[in-house]
Specification:
alpha+beta; 9-stranded mixed beta sheet
Length: 175
Amino acid sequence: MENVLVAICCIALILFGAMTISQNALSTTDTVAVAFKEMEDTSGEISRTNISSLGATTSDGITIDMTLENAGETQLEDFDEWDVILQYYDTDDNYLIKRLTYTSGTPPGNDEWQVKDIYLSASSGTPEAFDIGIFNPDEEMKIRMKVNPVLGTPNANRVIVVTPNGITASAIFTR
């Protein structure tokens, strides 16, 4: 009788252990499946996102305007999560690399950038027609940057814009 009771306890422990291991395996499989789905969604969003530079200009070496085109299939917003990086030589020929901070205020302060406006066509000045404030596919957006110290002449300067999901556009310009 004692052997039967010990055997029943051992079988119960084995079943309990097997059920625990099975539950953990199923939980891990579910976690992996959710992570894979999130990775697939992010990868799809990245593949549908594309921005291109239509150029950058400055006249005074302090204020820089850059025009971007949404050449992808996704709406872009959350500009405070974008990165704008400027590489330039100042008037003393010092090489500087700066990450500019986004501001929604106008005008931008030193080492800040803002979305100046979004257009159907920036060259003709045709404003966006729907989803105001969202950078939709086939729209163009002007961003304005202000830097200190002033850009030197006649050096080549570079501005790089990066969306939150890592898509970049850049422009080289001179003063």
